[in-house]
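Fill-in record for Class I SAM-dependent methyltransferase.
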Amino acid sequence: MLERRDDPRFVAIAKPCEHALALLRQVKDRTSAPKVAEVGIGIGATSVELCRILDGDGEISFFDFAEKVDDLAADLTAHGFENFRTYGNTRRTFDSYCWALAKVLQDMRRAGEDGVFDFIYLDGCHMFHHDAPATVICKELVKPDGILLMDDYNWSIAISPTTRPSANPRITRHFTDEQIEVPHVALICELFLDHDPAFERLDIGYAETPHEHRRAFRKKPGA
């Protein structure tokens, strides 16, 4: 998988997410062995850098299609990393990383734990029907004082070169005009995070620009 970082076809996702790396460094400064989750791994560009920051401490969990996390696991093992877990889902219509996240939450509740992860990077399909439930689950999975980073905040079907109707006319069979135009992650943040008193928004450098691509939240201690 990691060899795709040098493939021109994947140039848009070949570089690691610097916000995710910076936030994990902050987390590790205060937590020596953090537990981390990356939901949606792309081609592993961010995944391998997160592992390097952990440097054998703590544990990182990856959620995505089974064949993708299996490929990533083989590459990470070849690079000498061992402190990771994978949660793969099928490509069946109603299966997704949401189900795997739900099972982790179920185990957490049965164990009486107050959160699982110190840092969650949610970079999934950025569509409401998957990432709304994923966000609701991740809000519980993140520990007090933990951080949830939402990617593709300003992404929409309409602006994507691969999903917009001009490139993929069949998309109009599945989404309304409004659903095509509206950025789904921005809506999810507004509904479930922006106004939740248990969370506070973190400044990650978008204060001076209207083109916000990611949004980060910290779960308040005692929430």
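KEY FINDING: The helical segments are 18-30, 45-54, 66-78, 97-110, 128-141, 177-181, 184-192.
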